[in-house]
Amino acid sequence: VFPWVEGYPLGPLPEHFFAMRQLSMVDRLSMLDRLFSFFVLASQHDYIAAGLADNHLLINFHQPKLTLTSVDDFMRMPCINTRGRLPGSPWYLAPEAYHTGISLDEGVTVYAMGALAMTFLGDRDAPTLKTWTAAVPLYHIAIKALSEEKSLRFPSAQSFLDAWRQAVRSIPFS
Questions:
Q1: Using H for helix, E for strand and C for coil, what is the string for the chain?
Q2: Could you report the per-residue pLDDT of 45-72, keeping only the tens digit for each?
Q3: What are phi and psi of 12, to 5 degrees?
Q4: I need a labelling partner for 96 at 20 to 30 A (CA). Which of 63, 67, 114, 155 fits?
Q5: pLDDT band at residue 1 using 50, 70 and 90 as cut-offs
Q6: Do residues 17 and 31 touch, judged by C-beta distance below 8 A?
Q7: Is the pLDDT of residue 19 over 70?
Q8: Distances in Å between the alpha carbon of 23 and those of 4, 38, 95, 145, 174?
């Protein structure tokens, strides 16, 4: 039904995660940009990113290329969290993804985008500037997206992507 895609899932095997971290900064930024662009497209069609997990991120280390393999759990906005904890990896779940009766919106997607940035460029177990491997402005964008308080995050996936791309353009690649 679908064309074959070469690659390995980012998780659960730690060697795939470590191999991803060995890719060049340009390759990791390119992968993130494509993924973030997809999240913006999903948001424009009124979907939030739910159900995201490392095993849904297939990486071809030779090209390098990232493929998102499942959007089955994305949810149509507007929506209320009727499940309690949403599906997906805890790394990518916004705080509101754990509470029944909470209204879910693009803040969930923005949080996932920040978590992905931390996964690819920082240390998601200890998200500090000391463990960040990219330009400092990108760290501040990721941390803002990871705010526990939804109102402190970027207001939309598009605004996150705009800030992210502006910061990437300011990086002096040699």
A1: CCCCCCCEECCCCHHHHHHHHHCCHHHHHHHHHHHHHHHHHHHHCCEECCCCCHHHEEEECCCCEEEECCCCCCEECCEECCCCCCCCCHHHCCHHHHCCCCEECHHHHHHHHHHHHHHHHCCCCCCCHHHCCCCHHHHHHHHHHCCCCHHHCCCCHHHHHHHHHHHHHCCCCC
A2: 999 999 999 999 999 999 999 999 999 9
A3: -95, -5
A4: 67
A5: confident
A6: no
A7: yes
A8: 22, 21, 30, 24, 16
* pLDDT tier, 167 (very low <50, low <70, confident <90, very high otherwise): very high
Do the beta carbons of residue 92 and residue 71 sit within 8 Å?
no
CB 60 within 8 A of CB 6: yes
115 CB neighbour count, 10 Å cutoff:
24
DSSP 102: -
pTM of the model: 0.96
Helix (H) or strand (E) segment spanning residue 166? helix 157-169
Q: Compute the mean pLDDT over every residue in the chain, rounded to the nearest whole number.
A: 95
Fill in the amino acid letter for 26: V
d(CA 41, CA 98): 25
- 62 close to 32: Cβ distance less than 8 angstroms: no
